[in-house]
Amino acid sequence: MKKKEEERKTQIMKAAYNVVSELGYDNVTLQNIADNAGVSKGVVHYYFNSKQNILLELLDSITNQIYKYELEAIAQQQTAITKLKAYLEAVFVSPQKNRKFYSVYLDFLAQANGNADYKRINMNFYENCWGIGNEIIELGKKEGVFSKEIDTLTNAKMMRALIDGSLIQWLTSNEKELHQFYKESCINSILNLLQYSKE
């Protein structure tokens, strides 16, 4: 029974993700979510007591999934440079997935000012991202490929700023074919930031 309920909740969350990406946060209704999930509005109400409740859980879920995916990608690599490249491959996963996530994520960020829960989830996501950056930078310092003089946490934060800035700029350019250009430019910018040296 519990497995069935978890599957139904997941189905509703996927539907919420779809409709927020299509209609925008403000325009989504419980009926939209129910229709996309192929269930009645009453079923949605059974699992979630409000639209706000669904969307809060959705933001928490998608940011955690992305973090785990990125973490798994770097765990499979041994050196700082291969970890960095794996991280960027995991972040720039595909034009379709990036467009969907950032369309939804930017909508959530627009709500964050007046919502302490959204702020908390977003800060947790960024702290996780900075943790990945910290790991890569510290390893690179030990290997001698990144400057030992740079501050690790500051540069981990700037690394993620370059990633999100690149993807947001790509998204607003509305040119799908530039996805690869932004990914390569982002990697090069991060390497410059960390004062990459092959010696």
From TrEMBL:
> According to the UniProt record, which residues make up the DNA-binding region?
29-48
Which molecular function term from Gene Ontology is one that the record holds?
DNA binding
Instruction: Report the protein name in the record.
Output: Transcriptional regulator
Question: Is Metal-binding included in the keywords of this UniProt record?
Answer: no
The membrane spanning regions, by residue number, are: none
Q: Which UniProt keywords apply?
A: DNA-binding, Repressor, Transcription, Transcription regulation
Q: Which InterPro entries match?
A: BetI_C (IPR039538), DNA-bd_HTH_TetR-type_CS (IPR023772), Homeodomain-like_sf (IPR009057), HTH-type_Tx_Regulator (IPR050624), HTH_TetR (IPR001647), Tet_transcr_reg_TetR-rel_C_sf (IPR036271)
Q: Where is the HTH tetR-type domain?
A: 6-66
The record lists the organism as Viridibacillus arvi
The answer to whether keyword RNA-binding applies is no
